[in-house]
C-alpha cells in the first residue's frame, strides 16, 4: 500500500508539472504569435493611410473616408474608431475593402452621433 | 461482466492523457490567433480656429432690374429684394487660404454672421455656391452660370436690424475638401420687403460680415 501511494504521488506530481509546463508553453507561444502578427504588416500595406471625415450642419461626423487604400488590401476588413483626446472610443465602424484598381477610397458610415469637434484621433486597422 | 480495476499504472496513464489533451487545446487556440494579420495605426487630428472677417470676405449683390451691372467692391450694403422681375440677390464668400487647411481637413463648426441694416418682413435663405465668382464681375446675367445648391443651408428673419447668424458647418466642411469656399447666395424666400445687410466695405466694422470657424487638419 505504501508503494501504491508513492507511485500515485509521483504520477500526480508529474502530471501537474506537465500541465504547468503546458500552460507556460501556451503563454510563451501566444506572446510569440503577437510578434509574428506584427511581422505580417507588409502583407497589404506598411504605410499609415490617411483618413478624412465629413460633418453635417450639426457638427456631427457623417462618414469617414480612408484614402488611397492599396488594391492589395481588397477583401480585408478596415475598421475605424473615432477617439477623443484621451483615446476613449466615441464610435466605430468597419467594412470590407472592395476591389479597386490602383488604390481606392473606402467610406465608412454608422458611427452614431459623434461630434467632430470631440474627435482627436482616428484609430485604424486592417485585418486580413 | 468483468470488473475494471484501477491500478496505479492505469491511473497514471489516465492523468497523463488528460494533461496532454489540455495542452492540445492550448495549441489549437494559439493557432487560431496567428491566422490573422493586423495592421493598425493612429492618425492625430490638429484643431484650430480660423475666424474670418471683412478682410478675407468678398461680397456683392446682383439686380434683376440691371442685369448687366456689377456692384463690385464699392457697395457698402447688399440689397435683397423679392419683388418679381426686380429681384436682388446678395453673395458672400470668404478666402480660407490663410488657414492653410489641407483638403483632408474639415470644419468642426462654422457660423456666418451678417448684420441687417435695413429690416423688412422677409425670410432670407442661404444657398451654397460651389463654382467660382468674383464681386468685381458678377452680375445678374452671370448668376445662371453658377453652380448653386437647391437646398437652403439655413435662413434668418430680417424683420429686425442687427446681427443674424446661420450655421454653415456642412458647407464649409465640404468646401475645405474641395479646396475653395465659394460662399452663399442670399435671397428672400418669403416676404415682400427690400432689405439690406452690411457689406465688407461698410464704414462701420460691426456691420460687416464675419464667420467663426473651428477646423481640424
Short description:
The complex is a heterodimer of chains A (128) and B (217). In chain A, 30% of the residues lie in helices and 33% in strands.
Instruction: Please trace the helix and strand order of chain B, writing H or E for each element.
Output: HEEEEEEEHEEHEEE
Query: Would you identify the regions of chain A where 5 or more consecutive residues have pLDDT less than 50?
Result: 11-42
- Most residues in contact, chain pair and counts: A-B, 52 and 46 residues
Give the overall pLDDT of chain A as a whole number.
Answer: 78
User: Main beta sheet of chain A: strand number and arrangement?
Assistant: 3 strands, antiparallel
Helix content of chain B: 10-25%
Number of strands of chain B: 12
What is the number of helical segments of chain B per DSSP (H or I, 4+ residues)? 3
Indicate the proportion of strand residues of chain A: 25-35%
Largest sheet of chain B: 6 strands, antiparallel
Task: Characterize the structure shown.
The complex is a heterodimer of chains A (128) and B (217). Chain A has 128 residues and is α+β, with helices and mostly antiparallel strands. Chain A is 30% helix and 33% strand. Chain A has 1 helix and 6 strands, in the order αββββββ. Chain A has a 3-stranded antiparallel beta sheet, with no helix packed on it. Chain A has a 3-stranded antiparallel beta sheet with strand order 4-3-6, with no helix packed on it. Mean pLDDT of chain A is 78; it is low at 11-42. By secondary structure, chain B is of the alpha+beta class. Chain B has one domain (47-216). Chain B has helices spanning 8-34, 140-143, 169-178, and strands at 38-44, 47-49, 57-63, 77-80, 88-94, 106-118, 123-128, 154-157, 162-167, 184-190, 195-198, 210-216. Residues 20-33 of chain B have low confidence and may be disordered.
Amino acid at each position: 500500500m505504501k508503494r501504491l501511494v508513492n507511485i500515485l504521488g509521483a504520477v500526480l506530481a508529474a502530471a501537474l508539472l506537465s500541465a504547468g509546463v503546458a500552460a507556460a508553453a501556451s503563454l510563451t507561444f501566444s506572446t510569440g504569435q503577437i510578434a509574428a502578427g506584427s511581422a505580417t504588416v507588409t502583407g497589404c500595406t506598411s504605410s499609415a493611410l490617411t483618413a478624412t471625415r465629413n460633418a453635417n450642419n450639426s457638427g456631427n461626423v457623417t462618414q469617414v473616408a480612408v484614402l488611397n487604400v492599396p488594391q492589395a488590401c481588397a477583401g480585408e476588413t478596415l475598421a475605424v474608431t473615432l477617439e477623443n483626446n484621451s483615446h476613449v472610443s466615441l464610435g466605430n465602424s468597419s467594412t470590407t475593402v472592395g476591389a479597386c484598381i490602383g488604390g481606392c477610397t473606402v467610406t465608412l458610415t454608422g458611427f452614431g452621433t459623434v461630434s467632430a469637434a470631440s474627435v482627436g484621433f482616428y484609430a485604424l486597422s486592417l485585418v486580413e | 461482466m468483468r470488473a475494471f480495476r484501477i491500478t496505479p499504472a492505469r491511473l497514471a496513464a489516465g492523468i497523463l492523457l488528460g494533461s496532454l489533451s489540455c495542452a492540445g487545446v492550448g495549441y489549437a487556440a494559439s493557432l487560431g490567433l496567428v491566422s490573422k494579420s493586423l495592421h493598425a495605426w493612429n492618425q492625430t487630428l490638429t484643431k484650430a480656429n480660423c475666424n474670418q472677417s471683412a478682410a478675407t470676405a468678398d461680397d456683392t449683390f446682383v439686380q434683376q432690374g440691371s442685369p448687366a451691372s456689377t456692384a463690385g467692391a464699392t457697395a457698402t450694403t447688399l440689397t435683397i429684394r423679392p419683388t418679381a422681375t426686380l429681384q436682388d440677390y446678395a453673395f458672400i464668400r470668404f478666402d480660407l487660404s490663410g488657414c492653410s487647411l489641407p483638403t483632408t481637413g474639415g470644419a468642426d463648426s462654422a457660423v456666418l454672421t451678417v448684420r441687417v441694416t435695413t429690416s423688412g418682413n422677409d425670410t432670407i435663405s442661404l444657398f451654397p455656391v460651389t463654382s467660382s465668382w468674383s464681386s468685381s464681375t458678377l452680375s445678374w446675367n452671370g448668376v445662371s452660370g453658377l453652380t448653386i445648391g437647391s437646398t437652403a443651408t439655413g435662413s434668418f428673419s430680417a424683420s429686425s436690424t442687427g446681427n443674424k447668424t446661420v450655421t454653415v458647418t456642412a458647407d464649409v466642411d465640404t468646401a475645405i475638401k474641395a479646396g475653395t469656399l465659394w460662399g452663399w447666395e442670399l435671397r428672400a424666400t418669403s416676404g415682400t420687403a427690400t432689405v439690406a445687410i452690411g457689406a465688407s466695405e461698410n464704414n462701420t466694422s460691426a456691420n460687416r460680415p464675419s464667420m467663426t470657424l473651428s477646423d481640424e487638419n
